[in-house]
């Protein structure tokens, strides 16, 4: 039996869970005051505070980490790579500490915290399917601007785990299936999976894809240029991840409140809610074309999938493409444990992080 401890640092919370193989035996989520986090100039400066928070949680719940086989952190700050499980070596640690990919996100703390515990308990530290997984097919990379190529930032961890689990429910291997997989939460990721690879998707950090509660989604370049005329560029960039979507329109990021207002007859909220779903459906349609219509299922995961209206609308619009299956919530903690168990049990090969972007451009 493998004992696995998983750590998932978020923007305002830290989630931890202890697994025996793939069975969760303990989990906890602690929220952090925004004022407290604001005291730290950089994300990596939060390391000691986050670790002390975890230590306190473990002590309060009489949880011992003695005998833990592996510590697994949400992988952030890394350069584009294939999907899989990677050991936290010196290079992974260095890139996580400084955010080598240029994206400052609390997921950078995942490898760092996992490494700290692994050092203390003489165990191994890993990351599984980090946010910078890049398995794009070549046709998905080219743009209409010379020297500018597409990349993706997606909820790779949850997307891949959802696909793996659904394939198992069909008594198939993930590598033998084609899926359109969506994560619909505070951010919305929509991706095409062919033969075990995530061959296309959207750069949700860069502003692609559908509108989301805090994200503007895809907008014409000319419209953005007009909007930028009297704006600070840093402020505009925040529209991609923090101040766009519902926040820009209504000043709130709570999807439940927006859907409730829509259901209650608020025309503005209804237009926003239904526009978001409409854009999700359009993106699902585009991924169907990527897969040439040969699709084993459309899978919906993430917190908003608890909303029956959202699921119903997507089914009504998209079920002609393939069966739609809802997986409300997320499997992030389970995904980190499962990926590690697959490697430790020899079912999957451990990957080594190269520290170089997977895609460096075409030869022409």
TrEMBL record:
GO BP annotations listed: acetate metabolic process
Keyword terms, alphabetized: ATP-binding, Cytoplasm, Kinase, Nucleotide-binding, Transferase
Subcellular location(s) of the protein: Cytoplasm
Highest rank taxon of the organism: Bacteria
EC number from the UniProt entry: 2.7.2.7
Name of one Pfam family that matches: Acetate_kinase
Enzyme class: transferase
Gene Ontology molecular function: acetate kinase activity; ATP binding; butyrate kinase activity
Annotated InterPro entries: Aliphatic_acid_kin_short-chain, Aliphatic_acid_kinase_CS, ATPase_NBD, Butyrate_kin
Signal peptide: none
Coiled coil feature spans: none
Keyword Phosphoprotein: no
HAMAP family: Butyrate_kinase
Protein name, as recorded: Probable butyrate kinase
Name of the gene: buk
